[in-house]
Amino acid sequence: MYWYQNNNLLKNSSSALSFFVGSALLFWSCGSPSATKSPQKSSDIFSVDSFFTAEVSRLQQLNPAVLKSVKKDGEKEERELKIGSWKNELSAFQSADISKNFDPSLYEVKAIDCVTEFTAKKKDLQIQKLRIEFDRNEKVKHIHIDKKIANTLYDSQEKLDYYSDSLYRIVKLQDVQGLDANQYEIVGKFISSKK
Question: Backbone phi, then psi, for 96, in 5-degree steps?
Answer without folding.
Answer: -95, 40
